[in-house]
Amino acid sequence: MIQYVLDALLTSRKWKGELANDLDFISNPYPGMHLRSGHVDILDDATLEKLYVVAADDCEKSILRWRDDEATIARLRNEGVAVRDIRGDPHRCAAHILNRYELPLPTYARLPQQDAYAEEIPTELYRSMQELLYPDFDELLPFVLLITLMFAFNPGVVLHMTHSDYDDDDTLFGRERIRLKPFKPRANKNQISIVLATDDLDNPRTILRHLESRTAYLRPNLRKEFADRVFIRFSPGNRRISPVQLTDDGVRKSIERFCKKHELDIFQLQQIRPTTLDLVHEVSGGNLLSMTQVANHVHAATTLGHYARTAFHRRNEEMLANGMQQLDRKYLSDGRIDVASRHRLRSDLGSATPGFACLDPYASPFDKPRPQDGGTSGPRARGRLCQAYGKCPMCPLAMIDPTSPETYAYLYKLREAIEEARGRLGAPWISRWQIVSEKLTLWARLFRDKDVIRKGVELATFTIPDLPKLD
Fold first, then answer.
1. Ramachandran assignment for 450, one of left (phi > 0), alpha (psi -120 to 50 degrees), beta (any other)
2. Which residues pair with 151 in a beta bridge?
3. Which of 178, 285, 358, 445 can pair with 205 through a Cys bridge, CB separation 3.0 to 4.6 Å?
């Protein structure tokens, strides 16, 4: 409709001279609406937290267990284990076979079937040895989950990652870090992610080095193009060794067993990336660019089109509504309550007075309803930010942080404003601000640390501007 009006004005002799020649409207304000693509349901916060905790716990147990197994096998190999000394022990069997054969290890059918082997290394023992040396996907799944959660990669990118796709000996300013660069075919580029490297069991460098060690006996069994994969599995059922594929039926069954073990609802690997990106949107205060950076997208429109879900839009609407409420309060308080002048990370933007925090800024016991809201006395209706500037010291909903120099500085400034109002207001000051002054003294006594007080006074003297005048 607006486009029709604009076209008519541009062809009108009277108005076309008043309009710019290049004035135009977007032909389609909702591009991509014709695409038949649906969003994957994300996991709720409780499930996501539990998933991370249990996956990290399983990873740590696997790493420690393999370190013990590896040390035991190395000790037995150094000591030497004869076939008659195996005695049904998978560790002794592994030490004997590894000393006797080069990699790749032979299958049981290709072992020399002499009397000693037939007696000392039965089929079940050899299979137990294989399961000791070869990880199955049940063991690898927690590592897949943890890496996907940490870096918000697509599960296909994680499963196809190779040991050439990361540098685990990189440093920056003397600090060790690990640089991941797996390739994403759909984007036709590497997904770059860099984190600090530590010796913690849940650190990506520790995890990737463990996986390289854990699959060392599997890789010689694969062709060159698959041997460098990070995730290679052994299938106990059919005794096959293969790289993990997202479409494998065994992946689905492993997830079902994992969920049953940890009492989780069944999920899909494809749900983890959108869940992680939605969490980034939440903790970054709705910053789409942060979400785009974590997603390794070139354009924010890609993130918005594929990962903007209902919660995403709801949070954006809430942030917009909060900004509108703050502007409304600034206008109604004649500019005295202006949160733009406060530190966004160290201040409660809901409180009416800087330096204080509020349990519920939408339920002020002081403000009265406006005439247009109905009523002229009594507590005002909920839904509007508190406008009782300067009254926080006597409010039952008020809180402070007695360890914060900034908080003490604001209390110091409020004291100055109260004293300034004493001389300016005269007698009315007693009924309006005397009780506030007394309560403020009680709040100030909560500060016991002399360094906090000293830094607070310095901030109040040299950094923080004077507060607006009190009426």
1. alpha
2. none
3. 178
